[in-house]
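Exercise 3.2. Students should predict the tertiary structure of the chain below and write it as C-alpha cells, then compare their answer with the key that follows.

Predict this chain's 3D structure.
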Amino acid sequence: MEDQNKTATQVLCYHCGEDLPAIKYQAGDKDFCCAGCMAVFKILSENNLCNYYVYNNNPGQQFKNELHLEYLDEPKIIDQLLDYKHESSSIITFYIPAIHCSSCIWLLEHLYKINPAIFSSRIDFLKKQVTISFNHDEISLRQLVETLGQIGYEPLISLQDVVQEHSSSVDKALVLKIAVAGFLMGNVMLFSFPEYFGLSGFEKQFQSLFGWLNLTFAIPAAFYCGRDYFTSAITSLKHRHINLDTPLALIIAVLFLRTAFEILFSTGPGFADTLTGLVFLLLMGKWLKQRTYHHISFDRDYRSYFPIAVTTLQNGKEKPVSINEIKIGDRLWIRNGELVPADAILMKGEAWMDMSFVTGESDPVHKVLGEIIYAGGRQTSEAIELEVIKPVSQSYLTGLWNNDNYKNNTEKQNFNDTVAKYFSLGVFLIAFAATGYWLLQNDSHKAWAAFTAVIIVACPCVLALSTPFTLSAILSVFDKKGFYVKNTDAVEELAKCDTLIFDKTGTLTSNEHAEIGFSGTISGEEKIIVGSLLRNSIHPLSRHILKVLNVDRFYSLSDYKEVVGKGLTAKINNHSIYAGHLSMLPMAVKSASESGVHIVIDHVYKGCFDIKQQWRSGLAQLILKLSKFKLLVLSGDTDKDRWMLDTIFTEKTTIRFRQSPHQKLDAVLKLQQAGNKVMMLGDGLNDAGALKQSDFGIALTDNINNFTPGCDAILKGSALNYLPDFIQLSKDGLKIIKTSFAIAIAYNCIGIYFAVQGTLYPLVAAVLMPISTVTIISFTTMATRWFARKNKLI
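Answer key:
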C-alpha cells in the first residue's frame, strides 16, 4: 500500500506539482520536473527552509530560467523603483503574481535566511505585494530580483503605481471562474429539466446519460471554480482555526460526494444543479464584494485621504495647494515637523529627516543639497526647499499611515472575527446532530438531506459581507463631511470610546481669525528677522504672526531649533533670536503677559505678540451634546482662559493647564489603566504621543500639513461640530451589523427548522441562501443611509 502511495505522489513534481517528464530530475528521494525546481528545492534545503512544503503540497511555481534584468543595473531606474534609500539601507515594494497560499507568505517572510543582506520582508497577501528592506551594499537590486526569481517568485516590475496598475489582475481569474461556473450551471440545469417536471417513458432512457453528464460538469465546478474555498478552509484548519470559508468548502464537498454517490450507484439524480448553482452564486458574491472593495480602496487612496495643503513656492511666493495637485518640478516649502509628500531633491536648507514613518527608526537622518529625500520623511530642523521628482502616490502614503510601526501593541479583535468562529461551530454542531439523529432512525436519505440543507441554508456569507459593507458605507459618509478615518477597524474603536480629551490651542480655538497685538518696539529690519524665523515653523501661531508681519523678503538662518510647545531659536545675519514662551527666553524678563509669543534679539527683549484666539463657533452646543462622555481638557497654555472653559464645560470636566506632551501621554495611560476607552483630539504638534497612545486619536487640521502617523483619523476644523454625529453613526453602524446578524439568524432558524427534518430540498436551500445575502446587503445599505440622514450627515 505504501509503495502505491509513493508511486502516486511521485508522478508530480515535488516543488510545483506539474507532471513529471519522461526524464525526471532527482534530489534524494524527491522528483522534479526540471532543473529549476530542483535548484529551488536545494536552495530551500540548504537554508533550512523546507517547512515551505509543510503548509501546502506542491506550493511552488515552475522555475523560469531566463530573467533579463540588465536594466536593473541602471542607477536612474533603481532610483525610480525604490521607496527609500539611505547610506546602506533601501526599501522596495514588489508586485509578485505568484503569491497564492500560506507557503508563499511563510517563505517570503523568511528571505533573510536565504541572504543575510535582506533585513526584513512584509507581505500584503490581498494585493500580492512584498515590501523588502535590504542592504544595497551587499546585495544589489538586480541580485535581489534574481534571488526572488530563483525561488519561483519573480516580481512583475512596473514604474506605475502597483495597486492602480494591477487592481484588475485578480478580477480576470475570478471572472474566468464565474464564466466557467455559469456555463456549467446552464448545462446542468438543462439536463436536469426532465427531473424537475417528471420523467416520461421516453426520457427515462436518458436518465443515466444525463446523470453522468451532470457529474462530469460537477467536477470542474467543485475543483476548479470552488478551489479557493478548499484552499482557504484547509489553511485555516492547519492553523487550528475555523474561518468563514470552512462551511462553504464543506457544502461544496458534501454536494459533490453525494452527487457522485447517487450517480455511481444509480440511487438518484444527484445534486449537480445545486452544486453548480451554489458555486456560481458564491463566486458572483465574491466578485461583487471585490469590486466594492476596489472602488472604496481606489476612492479613498487617490481622493479622500490627507485633506491637507502643501506649501509650494511660485515665483518666490508661498502658495498652499492640495496634495494631489503636486506635479514633478514643483518647488515645496517644508517646515519643521511637516511631512514630505513626494520624492524630491533638496535644493535649499539643512535637512534632518525623521524617517521613522517609513523605516521605524526615529534617529534623524542628515541630508545634503542635491540629495533625494523620500516621501514619508518628516523635517525636524529649519524649513527646507525641495523639488519634486516623483508624483505623489496617495496609496503609498496611505500604506505608511497603516504601517504597523504606528499601531498600538494591543491586538484588537473586531466584532466580525468574534462572531464568525462561534457561528461556524454552531452550524457544524447542528448539521452533525441532525445527521446523527436521522441515522439513528435508519433513514440515511433524510440524514443526507438534513446535513446538506443545514449547511447550505446557514451559509455564513452574510457574516463576510455585512460588516465591511456597513463600515465602508460609514467611511464614505465620514469622508464627505471632512472626517477621514484610517480603516474600518478604527470605526469600531470610535464606537467604543467613552472618554474624550481635548487639547485647547488649535482644537477648541482656531487661529484663522485670531486677533494679534504687539506690545513693544520693533524696527522694519527686525520684522524681517522675526519673519525669517517664524516661516520655518508649522505652529499655527507662528503662521498667523507671519501673516500679520507681512514681510516681502527673508534671510537665511542657521542653528535653528524648535522646542515643541515652547518656542523657536536661530541665528540670522549674525543675530541670535528667540521667539516663544517666557520660559524659553535666555534671560529673565518681566512682562505683563505670561502668555503670547515673546521676542528677544541679541539678548534684548523686544516685546510680545499677544494672540487673542477665536473660540470655534458652536463650541457650547458641541460640549452639551458630548455631556454623556467623560470630558477632559489638557492644555499646554496658561490658565488665562479658564473662565471661558468653565462656562463652556460642565463642572465634572477635568481642566488642566501648562501640560507638557509627556504629561498628556501620562494622562491617557492612567485613564486606559482605569478601564476607559480614550479618544484624543489635538492638532498633532505637541500631543503626537497622546494621539498615538489613545484608543482613537483625531488630528484636527485647518488647511495645514500637520498630519501625524499616530492618529486614527484626520478631522477638518470646520467639521468639529459634527463630532457627536460621527460618534453616534459609528455606534449605529454596530447596531446595523448586530441587527443584520439577527435577521440572518432568523432566516437560519426558519431554514434550519425545516432542514433538520430532512424536508428542505437542497436546491431550495441554495436559493434561500443568496436571497438572505441580498436581503442583508440591501438592509445594511438602506439602514446606513437612514442613520446618516438621522444624524444629519447627508
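Discussion points: Residues 1-9, 159-170, 295-305, 404-412 have pLDDT under 50 and may be disordered. Residues 514 and 613 are 5 Å apart (CA to CA).
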